Amino acid sequence: MMPLLLTLWPVYLAYLLGTASPGPSNLAIMGVAMRHGRRSALALAAGVITGSMFWATLVACGLSTLLLAWSEALIVIKLVGGCYLLWLAFKAARSAARKGEGSLAEKTVAEATMGAFWRRGVLLHLANPKAIMVWLAIISLGMHPGAPAATLPLIVGGCALLGMLVFGSYALLFSTATAGRVYFKARRLVEGTFALFFGAAGIKMLTGK
Protein backbone atom coordinates (compact mmCIF):
# COMPACT_ATOMS: atom_id res chain seq x y z
CA MET A 1 0.00 0.00 0.00
CA MET A 2 2.76 2.47 0.93
CA PRO A 3 4.67 2.05 -2.39
CA LEU A 4 1.39 2.72 -4.25
CA LEU A 5 0.75 5.85 -2.20
CA LEU A 6 4.24 7.10 -3.00
CA THR A 7 3.58 6.74 -6.73
CA LEU A 8 0.50 8.92 -6.38
CA TRP A 9 2.25 11.97 -4.92
CA PRO A 10 2.07 13.91 -8.25
CA VAL A 11 -1.72 13.42 -8.19
CA TYR A 12 -2.05 14.66 -4.62
CA LEU A 13 0.28 17.59 -5.27
CA ALA A 14 -1.69 18.64 -8.36
CA TYR A 15 -4.97 18.46 -6.47
CA LEU A 16 -3.53 20.31 -3.47
CA LEU A 17 -2.22 23.15 -5.61
CA GLY A 18 -5.51 23.35 -7.48
CA THR A 19 -7.69 23.51 -4.38
CA ALA A 20 -5.43 25.83 -2.39
CA SER A 21 -5.12 28.43 -5.17
CA PRO A 22 -7.60 31.34 -5.09
CA GLY A 23 -10.91 30.59 -6.78
CA PRO A 24 -14.66 31.11 -6.36
CA SER A 25 -15.01 28.32 -3.79
CA ASN A 26 -12.15 29.50 -1.58
CA LEU A 27 -13.28 33.11 -1.82
CA ALA A 28 -16.83 32.14 -0.90
CA ILE A 29 -15.58 30.21 2.14
CA MET A 30 -13.45 33.17 3.20
CA GLY A 31 -16.39 35.56 2.90
CA VAL A 32 -18.81 33.35 4.82
CA ALA A 33 -16.19 32.72 7.52
CA MET A 34 -15.66 36.44 8.09
CA ARG A 35 -19.36 37.34 7.83
CA HIS A 36 -21.09 34.46 9.56
CA GLY A 37 -18.48 32.55 11.53
CA ARG A 38 -16.84 29.14 11.70
CA ARG A 39 -19.85 26.81 11.63
CA SER A 40 -21.35 28.43 8.54
CA ALA A 41 -18.00 28.42 6.75
CA LEU A 42 -17.40 24.76 7.59
CA ALA A 43 -20.89 23.93 6.29
CA LEU A 44 -20.11 25.73 3.03
CA ALA A 45 -16.75 23.94 2.81
CA ALA A 46 -18.50 20.60 3.34
CA GLY A 47 -20.82 21.45 0.46
CA VAL A 48 -17.89 22.30 -1.81
CA ILE A 49 -16.21 18.98 -0.96
CA THR A 50 -19.48 17.14 -1.61
CA GLY A 51 -19.71 18.74 -5.05
CA SER A 52 -16.10 17.87 -5.78
CA MET A 53 -16.64 14.24 -4.79
CA PHE A 54 -19.71 14.10 -7.04
CA TRP A 55 -17.60 15.06 -10.05
CA ALA A 56 -14.86 12.67 -8.93
CA THR A 57 -17.34 9.79 -8.77
CA LEU A 58 -18.76 10.75 -12.16
CA VAL A 59 -15.34 10.70 -13.76
CA ALA A 60 -14.29 7.51 -11.94
CA CYS A 61 -17.41 5.71 -13.20
CA GLY A 62 -16.65 6.74 -16.77
CA LEU A 63 -19.87 8.75 -17.08
CA SER A 64 -17.85 11.88 -17.83
CA THR A 65 -17.21 10.59 -21.37
CA LEU A 66 -20.95 10.59 -22.04
CA LEU A 67 -21.33 14.03 -20.47
CA LEU A 68 -18.47 15.46 -22.50
CA ALA A 69 -19.92 13.93 -25.65
CA TRP A 70 -23.22 15.65 -24.93
CA SER A 71 -21.95 19.18 -25.42
CA GLU A 72 -25.34 20.71 -24.61
CA ALA A 73 -25.00 19.49 -21.01
CA LEU A 74 -21.73 21.32 -20.53
CA ILE A 75 -23.23 24.45 -22.06
CA VAL A 76 -26.11 24.30 -19.57
CA ILE A 77 -23.69 23.79 -16.65
CA LYS A 78 -21.61 26.70 -17.93
CA LEU A 79 -24.63 29.01 -18.17
CA VAL A 80 -25.91 28.03 -14.73
CA GLY A 81 -22.44 28.45 -13.21
CA GLY A 82 -21.87 31.84 -14.81
CA CYS A 83 -25.28 33.13 -13.73
CA TYR A 84 -24.74 31.83 -10.19
CA LEU A 85 -21.41 33.63 -9.92
CA LEU A 86 -23.04 36.83 -11.20
CA TRP A 87 -25.74 36.39 -8.54
CA LEU A 88 -23.03 36.13 -5.89
CA ALA A 89 -21.42 39.26 -7.34
CA PHE A 90 -24.75 41.09 -7.14
CA LYS A 91 -25.28 40.07 -3.52
CA ALA A 92 -21.74 41.16 -2.59
CA ALA A 93 -22.16 44.47 -4.43
CA ARG A 94 -25.48 45.10 -2.70
CA SER A 95 -23.85 44.43 0.66
CA ALA A 96 -20.96 46.75 -0.21
CA ALA A 97 -23.41 49.51 -1.12
CA ARG A 98 -24.97 49.45 2.35
CA LYS A 99 -23.48 51.96 4.73
CA GLY A 100 -22.19 51.05 8.15
CA GLU A 101 -19.96 48.30 9.45
CA GLY A 102 -22.61 45.60 9.58
CA SER A 103 -23.94 43.79 12.59
CA LEU A 104 -22.63 40.77 14.44
CA ALA A 105 -26.26 39.71 14.71
CA GLU A 106 -25.94 38.42 11.12
CA LYS A 107 -23.94 35.50 12.50
CA THR A 108 -26.72 34.32 14.79
CA VAL A 109 -29.24 34.25 11.93
CA ALA A 110 -26.84 32.53 9.53
CA GLU A 111 -25.70 29.86 11.97
CA ALA A 112 -29.27 28.54 12.17
CA THR A 113 -29.19 27.65 8.46
CA MET A 114 -26.24 25.29 8.11
CA GLY A 115 -28.11 23.31 5.47
CA ALA A 116 -28.45 26.41 3.32
CA PHE A 117 -24.70 27.02 3.42
CA TRP A 118 -24.02 23.37 2.60
CA ARG A 119 -26.36 23.55 -0.40
CA ARG A 120 -24.68 26.77 -1.52
CA GLY A 121 -21.30 25.04 -1.46
CA VAL A 122 -22.63 22.05 -3.43
CA LEU A 123 -24.17 24.31 -6.07
CA LEU A 124 -21.04 26.43 -6.28
CA HIS A 125 -18.96 23.39 -7.23
CA LEU A 126 -21.54 21.56 -9.35
CA ALA A 127 -22.05 24.70 -11.41
CA ASN A 128 -18.37 24.77 -12.35
CA PRO A 129 -17.73 22.81 -15.57
CA LYS A 130 -13.98 23.14 -15.02
CA ALA A 131 -14.33 20.71 -12.11
CA ILE A 132 -15.00 17.90 -14.59
CA MET A 133 -11.85 18.76 -16.52
CA VAL A 134 -9.79 18.95 -13.34
CA TRP A 135 -10.90 15.49 -12.22
CA LEU A 136 -10.29 14.08 -15.69
CA ALA A 137 -6.73 15.41 -15.49
CA ILE A 138 -6.25 14.18 -11.90
CA ILE A 139 -7.45 10.64 -12.57
CA SER A 140 -5.65 10.43 -15.90
CA LEU A 141 -2.45 11.44 -14.13
CA GLY A 142 -2.77 8.66 -11.59
CA MET A 143 -4.30 5.86 -13.63
CA HIS A 144 -2.35 3.82 -16.17
CA PRO A 145 -2.70 0.39 -17.82
CA GLY A 146 -2.14 -2.33 -15.26
CA ALA A 147 -2.70 -0.04 -12.27
CA PRO A 148 -3.73 -1.91 -9.09
CA ALA A 149 -7.43 -1.99 -8.25
CA ALA A 150 -6.78 0.16 -5.18
CA THR A 151 -5.39 3.04 -7.24
CA LEU A 152 -8.70 4.74 -8.06
CA PRO A 153 -10.10 4.63 -4.48
CA LEU A 154 -6.79 5.96 -3.18
CA ILE A 155 -6.88 8.85 -5.66
CA VAL A 156 -10.45 9.84 -4.82
CA GLY A 157 -10.10 9.21 -1.08
CA GLY A 158 -6.75 10.96 -0.78
CA CYS A 159 -7.98 14.00 -2.69
CA ALA A 160 -11.12 14.09 -0.54
CA LEU A 161 -8.96 14.29 2.59
CA LEU A 162 -6.83 17.01 1.03
CA GLY A 163 -9.97 18.93 0.07
CA MET A 164 -11.23 18.74 3.64
CA LEU A 165 -7.86 19.99 4.89
CA VAL A 166 -7.65 22.91 2.46
CA PHE A 167 -11.25 24.12 2.54
CA GLY A 168 -11.51 23.48 6.28
CA SER A 169 -8.34 25.50 6.86
CA TYR A 170 -9.79 28.45 4.93
CA ALA A 171 -12.94 28.22 7.04
CA LEU A 172 -11.03 28.10 10.33
CA LEU A 173 -8.42 30.71 9.43
CA PHE A 174 -10.87 33.36 8.26
CA SER A 175 -13.39 32.78 11.05
CA THR A 176 -11.04 33.97 13.78
CA ALA A 177 -11.97 36.95 15.92
CA THR A 178 -9.28 39.03 14.21
CA ALA A 179 -10.61 38.23 10.74
CA GLY A 180 -14.13 39.04 11.92
CA ARG A 181 -13.08 42.43 13.25
CA VAL A 182 -11.24 43.22 10.03
CA TYR A 183 -14.29 42.29 8.00
CA PHE A 184 -16.76 44.37 9.99
CA LYS A 185 -14.44 47.38 9.92
CA ALA A 186 -13.68 47.11 6.19
CA ARG A 187 -16.90 45.38 5.16
CA ARG A 188 -17.64 47.54 2.12
CA LEU A 189 -14.13 47.15 0.73
CA VAL A 190 -14.14 43.39 1.30
CA GLU A 191 -17.60 42.93 -0.24
CA GLY A 192 -16.65 45.16 -3.16
CA THR A 193 -13.60 43.00 -3.82
CA PHE A 194 -15.75 39.86 -3.70
CA ALA A 195 -18.23 41.44 -6.09
CA LEU A 196 -15.51 42.24 -8.61
CA PHE A 197 -14.00 38.75 -8.36
CA PHE A 198 -17.30 36.89 -8.68
CA GLY A 199 -18.45 39.19 -11.46
CA ALA A 200 -15.27 38.70 -13.46
CA ALA A 201 -15.40 34.93 -12.93
CA GLY A 202 -19.05 34.78 -13.98
CA ILE A 203 -18.50 36.83 -17.14
CA LYS A 204 -15.46 34.71 -18.02
CA MET A 205 -17.48 31.52 -17.58
CA LEU A 206 -20.34 32.81 -19.72
CA THR A 207 -18.19 34.21 -22.51
CA GLY A 208 -15.24 31.79 -22.50
CA LYS A 209 -14.96 28.93 -24.94
Keywords for this entry:
209 residues; mainly alpha; 83% helix
What do you see in this structure?
- The chain has 209 residues and is mainly alpha-helical.
- Helix content is 83%, strand content 0%.
- The chain has one domain.
- The protein has helices spanning 2-7, 9-20, 24-36, 38-60, 63-69, 71-97, 105-111, 114-126, 130-142, 151-173, 177-185, 187-207.
- Helix 3 packs antiparallel against helix 4.
- It is globular, with a radius of gyration of 18 Å.
Terminal-residue CA separation: 41 Å
E-strand count? 0
Radius of gyration equals 18 Å
The number of domains: 1
Structural class: mainly alpha
* Major β-sheet annotation: none
Shape label: globular
Question: Could you list the spans in which at least 5 consecutive residues all have pLDDT below 50?
Answer: 102-112
Number of helices: 12
Average per-residue pLDDT, rounded, comes to: 79
User: Strand share of the residues?
Assistant: under 5%
Helices and strands, in order, run as: HHHHHHHHHHHH
Helix content range of the residues, please? over 70%
